[in-house]
Fold this sequence. Notes:
By secondary structure, the protein is α/β, with parallel strands linked by helices. It folds into four domains: 11-202, no CATH class; 217-325, PAS domain (Beta-Lactamase, 2-Layer Sandwich), CATH 3.30.450.20; 335-493, Alpha-Beta Plaits (2-Layer Sandwich); 518-760, TIM Barrel. Helices cover 55% and strands 16% of the residues. It has an eight-stranded mixed barrel, surrounded by five helices. Strands 2-1-5-4-3 form a five-stranded antiparallel beta sheet. Helix 23 links the parallel strand 19 (675-678) and strand 20 (709-713). The longest helix has 51 residues, at 166-216. The radius of gyration is 47 Å and the shape is elongated.
Amino acid sequence: xxxxxxxxxxxxxxxxxxxxxxxxxxxxxxxxxxxxxxxxxxxxxxxxxxxxxxxxxxxxxxxxxxxxxxxxxxxxxxxxxxxxxxxxxxxxxxxxxxxxxxxxxxxxxxxxxxxxxxxxxxxxxxxxxxxxxxxxxxxxxxxxxxxxxxxxxxxxxxxxxxxxxxxxxxxxxxxxxxxxxxxxxxxxxxxxxxxxxxxxxxxxxxxxxxxxxxxxxxxxxxxxxxxxxxxxxxxxxxxxxxxxxxxxxxxxxxxxxxxxxxxxxxxxxxxxxxxxxxxxxxxxxxxxxxxxxxxxxxxxxxxxxxxxxxxxxxxxxxxxxxxxxxxxxxxxxxxxxxxxxxxxxxxxxxxxxxxxxxxxxxxxxxxxxxxxxxxxxxxxxxxxxxxxxxxxxxxxxxxxxxxxxxxxxxxxxxxxxxxxxxxxxxxxxxxxxxxxxxxxxxxxxxxxxxxxxxxxxxxxxxxxxxxxxxxxxxxxxxxxxxxxxxxxxxxxxxxxxxxxxxxxxxxxxxxxxxxxxxxxxxxxxxxxxxxxxxxxxxxxxxxxxxxxxxxxxxxxxxxxxxxxxxxxxxxxxxxxxxxxxxxxxxxxxxxxxxxxxxxxxxxxxxxxxxxxxxxxxxxxxxxxxxxxxxxxxxxxxxxxxxxxxxxxxxxxxxxxxxxxxxxxxxxxxxxxxxxxxxxxxxxxxxxxxxxxxxxxxxxxxxxxxxxxxxxxxxxxxxxxxxxxxxxxxxxxxxxxxxxxxxxxxxxxxxxxxxxxxxxxxxxxxxx
Length: 767
């Protein structure tokens, strides 16, 4: 990097170089004293008047230069242009060149005229010393170096040659490399300093930018050395951890700083060591990142990386809002939106967690199912709003009466309770019956009083004999026994009820035979555009009509099929049948098929879907596959891979009943999804309850932000539909407001009916 041309040098650097020409004025004073003294000594020795005149010239030039320097000092340097700086350079160089020219003249005169060895030695020595000082004083200006060395050497060279002395002439020629060397030295110093000035300025700019970026980044950052001493810390880190100003923390031990924060700020005493321990685990690769919760609702997510020198970089961010949102979503999907009680899936998790925690404890456990008698009449006579309010009141009373029992809402008007270990079976039996008796009676809701009775069935078994499915069956059998006797009764499971269990086993055998014989049939519930103008898709629903018992509810035989492990056979049947039926519909209508958790446990479903599409000739784009959140709990990575492969083949993937299981933001964010089907529980009472509407809209907004299509299930009334359309909360609507499940041949008829209504409306508008 050579600043050969001043125009290429940044103006501030150029000014600093020119300013150096007027610096070190004490050396100028010392120099002029030496020059004058030397000339006077030579004049005394040689009796030459010329050297007296030269002494006077040195003094005059020095005084003129001092005046010029003072004038230059008073100039506003910041207002100088490049041309102005260049003009001052020429003025300052001219003064220096006058001095060196006088030195050259003095030396040349001594060589050519005086012929005195002292005069020659004194003048040449002072001149050579001055030339060397040029490197130290005037390196900033190439012009100054060239002009001064030239004006020094040229008179001596000319006079040595004119003296017609061979050796003096030879010596004078040696001044040329000395001149060039001096010039090269000055240029080298100038170039070196120029490079360093530029480099320092660039480093300063980079450092300023880095500091600005560091202190304006949304993440906290702490860089420590191998001894855990802080090397770099930004303002965000200090703000989040409340550990003081960044400039006070350099070279401090991170552990000591965190302990100080724990002592004088919001941090718990145990959290500094937790941060350091997890920092080590993250840096060593044992953890990718870690989340630490602090008081005052602060949640920080930490990640770290080990540096080559043994230090580490710790980065963390405030994820409090995300954590609160996830907790809110988690609460939404774990708890019933109406009553606030754990839903069925979360109830099961709570029971399993309790048993895992108390696995060494012995004693009887209780399991009770409650069913509100004739609750349907409340909805029919007083409306769903009043019915929902009554449900909430009943749930609140059950919660108040149940003590330390785990309570959940099973479905509709049913509740489920789990009673922890008791000392003896008799006392647990008394407790269960006490809870049942406490929740019977009058309920005041919406300025009305309802006399409510709840039938109950329960089972008491030792904890070693616990199995959730078996207990559910036993409690259901006991509940059936209670309801068959009288309303509001309670029955405990007894061995003779096993006959009912045997009956259920027979039902399972019949189901297996029906599946093998493909005796199931399908109904299809259409999904309409929100304005009802078109059917976009129809969901295939399996139906089973038992030859003796009649129609078996889907939730009954599907649950049995899952227990028996034949659900995949039903899925295969539904897939093949649904794809074939879809070929008879208008081309814009797709068909949707539900997949179970068992279907997604291995990759066999990929070949089944491919066979169904090939057998029917259906375009993959017309097939939708629905998965529930329970499918995603076990082996989520394998499920994600299978769904990604299905989606890559052009099949649409939907998550069904969103909001009823273990919903998580990670499902929507990481799974290859196209559609979110929001459960009917989100729609209930949205007309009357603004909070429910906000909850639904918030869920819809979250899904749409992720680019997902929205299907709202369970829309039953025109008021609900109008409200959904008002807020544009649905892309598709599925529910009785448009159509119940219908046979396959009815789907084209429904679409034709829509088309006729559209034509009639257009004609009516024209008329």
